[in-house]
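Q: Got a minute? One more chain.
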Amino acid sequence: MLKTYFIAAGLMIFLAATSQQKPANAGTGEQLIKPRYGYFIHPSISNLAGKSSNEEPNSISIHLLSAYKFMNGLSLGAGSGIEHLGKPLLPAYGYLRYDLNKAGTTPYAWIKAGYGFSLEGEDTDDPWYTSYRESKGGMLFNAGIGIALFSRKNLGVNMGVGYRYQKVSTTYHETNWGSDEEKIRQVFTEFNRFELQIGIVFR
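A: Always. Here it is, folded:
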């Protein structure tokens, strides 16, 4: 899993590096990579690392978001993706980002908040019981800092680190064989993860 992440990260960096063009007026000291405002698309891949009772200390998260950047450096948008935290999840969230300056290379900070929907259906746990479980998602929160490197006005690479929180709920319906009495119990699992993210920005 980590191998997949590093391969994808290397491809993104290679794409940005090979897209660099030498400015025609480099000797004048002018900066051709000027800030551009408006809509942008940001696909990314992240490694989510942390302690876990389900023997998954590392997992891969793939996201795609669209946002609008204003002239003051603030960006607002929304995104989704696919990831696995205890169970397969489909996150949906709002996105807030602030770029510190207007240069081709700029530090930035981001916040994501929303809900992770479970992609896991009902599952039978024990053949001796008429029992099944329903997996639901839960609230998600993500915040971090990074650096954006733009080699062209329309293409850049983002690299960042952050904190990721995800809550997941599972409802167990259990009926003892030969009995009509159903027992229902709900289990909540909270994931706290360190995120290492890399992505491309098309604007």
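A: The radius of gyration is 21 Å.
Q: Perfect, thanks.
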